[in-house]
């Protein structure tokens, strides 16, 4: 992902993203690579170590979501929640459901 896109998607300033990326690079979780077709820019790319960390964190995160949120709902409530969240993601109903 380009650094400018990353800044927009995580709601940080460009300088905030630079500091965050510097820390992640120092930990070996991502690396900066020149952006193909534009020598002025670079993009953040997950390293193998970063990909493994993401998998580990995702597993814990989804277990927490299940334990504290979706695991407390029955099938009808989950269907209703999916419909409501689908409206937030696709208010016109033109795409696929969540």
Describe the structure.
With 98 residues, this protein is of the alpha+beta class. The chain has two domains: 44 residues, no CATH class; 40 residues. Helix content is 57%, strand content 15%. Strands 1-2 form a two-stranded antiparallel ribbon. Helix 1 packs across helix 2. It is extended. The two termini are 24 Å apart.
Shape: extended
- Strand order of the main beta sheet, please? 1-2
Secondary structural class: alpha+beta
Number of strands: 2
Assign a percent range to the helix content. 55-70%
**Count of discrete domains:** 2
Helical segment tally? 4
Largest sheet: 2 strands, antiparallel
Distance between the termini: 24 Å
Question: What is the typical, i.e. mean, pLDDT?
Answer: 87
- Strand % is 15-25%
| Rg over CA atoms | 18 Å
The poorly predicted ranges are: none
The helix-strand sequence is HHEEHH
């Amino acid at each position: 992902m380009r650094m400018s896109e990353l800044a927009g998607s995580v709601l940080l300033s460009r300088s905030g993203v630079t500091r965050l990326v510097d820390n992640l690079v120092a930990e070996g979780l991502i690396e900066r690579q020149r952006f193909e077709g534009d020598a002025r820019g670079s993009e953040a790319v997950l390293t193998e170590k970063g990909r493994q960390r993401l998998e580990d964190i995702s597993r814990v995160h989804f277990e927490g979501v299940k334990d504290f949120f979706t695991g407390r709902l029955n099938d009808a409530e989950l269907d209703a929640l999916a419909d409501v969240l689908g409206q937030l993601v696709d208010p016109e109903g033109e795409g696929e459901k969540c």
